[in-house]
Amino acid sequence: MLKLYFTPATCSLASHIALEESGARYEVQRVDFSRQEQRSPEFLRVNPKGRVPALVTDDGVLTETPAILAYIGQSFPGSPIGVPSDPFAFARIQSFNSYLCSTVHVAHAHKRRGSRWADDPAAIEAMTLKVASNMSDCFELIETDMFAGPWVMGETYSIADPYLFTLAGWLEGDGVDPARFPKVLDHRRRMAERPAVKKVLAALEG
Ligand SMILES: N[C@@H](CCC(=O)N[C@@H](CS)C(=O)NCC(=O)O)C(=O)O
């Protein structure tokens, strides 16, 4: 059975929702950041990067959200989260998810994880102050150029949707008013109404 290592309020939410949408049998294991469990020897044996998400499969452990989402999508082709067989259509989804992973998530991480990039407290403070404008720029691009609507890629729901939902949920905490991005905000509202999303969020709160 698939096993997802997750932490509430992190990017692992995207993989969690995708698993629920897929109809897969899976179990979850919480990694408690307040106890630094992501750096524990037990967890580092699962993911030496010390990060969530990590998905344990019969073939080994997968890390990196775009890879996990693509794996779930390819493993459950008939589900709402199944990925298209057309190479170009699939690459467009990967392009969107890669942007979220390599640019948007990294822009966000400068708020709490500045020590990854600098030791000087003034430099860390300067990076923190830049987060709101960087996240605004990213979501401006998503809103005006990248988001097709009604779902991220257009008419068909895809593995890009839970990922956008997850990162859009960080806007307020990053000092950005989501009302500036009506399409993204409406997407967030519609995502929150999906049974799979409701189920995962209820489980995380419980
Ligand atoms: N590129 C990775 C990023 C994973 C990542 O940075 N996860 C964060 C939570 S959103 C984490 O585990 N942070 C723990 C830490 O930095 O100690 C992905 O997309 O899966």
DSSP helical segment count: 8
Largest sheet: 4 strands, mixed
**N-to-C SSE series?**
EHEHEEHHHHHH
Helix content class: 40-55%
How would you write the strand order of the largest sheet?
2-1-3-4
* Small ligands present: glutathione
> Termini distance?
23 Å
Total beta strands:
4
Shape category: globular
Structure class: alpha+beta
What percentage of the residues does DSSP assign to strands (E)? 5-15%
Radius of gyration: 17 Å
**CATH second-level architecture of the largest domain:** Up-down Bundle
Explain the overall architecture:
With 206 residues, this protein is α+β, with helices and mostly antiparallel strands. The chain has two domains: 2-81 and 197-205, Glutaredoxin (3-Layer(aba) Sandwich); 87-194, Glutathione S-transferase Yfyf (Class Pi), Chain A, domain 2, CATH 1.20.1050. Helix content is 54%, strand content 9%. The protein contains eight helices and four strands, in the order βαβαββαααααα. It has a four-stranded mixed β-sheet with strand order 2-1-3-4, with helices on one face. Helix 4 runs antiparallel to helix 5. The longest helix is centred in the middle third of the chain and has 26 residues, at 87-112. It is globular, with a radius of gyration of 17 Å. It starts with a strand and ends with a helix. Bound molecules: glutathione. GO terms for molecular function: glutathione transferase activity. This is Glutathione S-transferase. Residues 1-80 form the GST N-terminal domain.
